[in-house]
Specification:
The chain is about 40% helix and about 15% strand. It is built from 13 helices and 12 strands.
């Protein structure tokens, strides 16, 4: 097949590649000055937060939950949205806590009104993500949870550089998180390639500083970068090969590696990539907003497909989510691929056949890094599927 239109996992320019080359040539892949420079950059962007730059957002999440648990040992439950990456409930369970799932609204974010009845005397914390970059009603949640003396984690993993109420997302609640993994606003790689913990509650700074300030430098990041480039950024044959290799490891050798087991500082190389990503962030957000608006303008051409996260108050999206109301997402994905458009399934069971709920019939379409002509091709492919009576 010719040139495919596919979801972009990392929109990189020449600066990102220069940081990679400099780190390799100078032998400073793991250790170097970029970590300190990144910390200073983040401190300037988040002036009301204490910043810890780690090798993953998951490390910051676990450190925070363990501290909350220590401070309030009688509370055992953590509220999270029913639509979320599997890594979040896994982290909650790893801390010996119980994830409690509450419903989401049509925009795929946690329905804040459900907190009024969902919180109880066992609720330790609420993890509130901004799904695919669509900002949740974090201000309302913050006021409610303060009254109830429940910790709030502002999961801004996908929305670096987005502000609401004159405050950056990640700066709300008791702590905030950023992730630098694939398909976020800041992308440095995969498998513990970087993340940030923002401590916004001054009462937590001392304990978290004691736990996190003396972390070791990370190791083995060059091989992980190669894996990211081949399997996630370039994809093609490498992605399929990796799938079968991982399946083989699990079946024959029962290998299930935990790439996040080691908690460390971000590597010098990946900190450099992050610096380049922050430098180009406003430009990339502006370009992606134009793509969102273009999808929105063409939405009226479609009758059985909608974009549930698109509204008049758009701030930013990292991925374009389509809801297919009359055709199964797995079938739609195959039909789109026949026309040169690559799509992805979404979290959990969201890509099941549409059943009238917000969490059904969903498919991820390309968005970031596209030219408008590419969006025309995506919309035309969807229209062609409708016109050929596939639905």
């Amino acid at each position: 097949m010719g040139n495919l239109i596919k979801p972009e996992t990392a929109v990189w320019g020449k600066e990102e590649w220069l940081y990679i080359a400099k780190s390799i040539i100078s032998g400073s892949v793991n250790k170097g000055n970029n970590v300190e420079l990144l910390s200073k950059t983040l401190a300037e962007k988040y002036p009301n937060s204490t910043v810890f730059v780690l090798n993953s957002a998951r490390a910051g999440l676990i450190a925070s939950l363990l501290l909350f648990k220590k401070k309030q040992p009688d509370k055992t439950q953590v509220i999270i949205p029913e639509f979320i990456c599997d890594s979040v409930p896994q982290a909650v369970k790893k801390c010996g806590l119980v994830p409690v799932f509450l419903p989401v609204s049509d925009d795929l974010n946690l329905n804040i009104s459900s907190l009024y009845t969902g919180c109880n005397e066992k609720t330790l914390a609420v993890i509130l993500p901004h799904m695919y970059g669509k900002s949740a009603n974090i201000g309302q949640a913050e006021v409610l949870l303060k009254e109830k003396k429940i910790y709030l984690i502002d999961d801004a993993a996908q929305v670096a550089g987005v502000n609401i109420e004159s405050k950056p997302l990640g700066g709300f609640g008791d702590v905030g998180l950023l992730s630098f993994a694939q398909a976020k606003t800041i992308v440095t790689g995969v498998r513990a390639s970087g993340g940030v913990l923002f401590v916004n509650n001054k009462d937590l700074i001392g304990a978290l500083t004691e736990n996190l300030q003396m972390l070791p430098f990370t190791k083995g990041r060059l091989s992980t970068l190669c894996h990211f480039l081949m399997v996630y950024k370039w994809q093609r044959v490498w992605k399929r090969m990796d799938y079968y290799i991982q399946r083989l490891k699990q079946r024959i050798w029962d290998v299930h590696p935990d790439y996040y087991a080691q908690v460390s500082k971000i590597s010098n190389m990946e900190a450099g990539i992050a610096l380049a990503q922050f430098a180009s962030l406003s430009q990339r957000i502006s370009a992606t907003k134009k793509n969102i608006e273009y999808y929105q303008a063409n939405q009226q051409l479609l009758t059985s497909f909608t974009f549930p996260q698109i509204t008049q108050d758009n701030i930013y999206l990292t991925r374009m989510i389509l809801q297919s109301k009359r055709i199964a997402p797995n079938i739609l994905a195959k039909l789109l691929l026949q026309q040169g458009v690559v799509s992805n399934t979404v979290y959990g069971t969201g890509s099941k056949i549409f059943d009238g709920t917000s969490l059904s019939g969903l498919l991820e379409l390309p968005l970031q890094g596209l030219a408008l002509v590419d969006i025309d091709k995506v919309v035309c492919a969807l229209k062609k599927i409708e016109d050929n009576s596939y639905v």
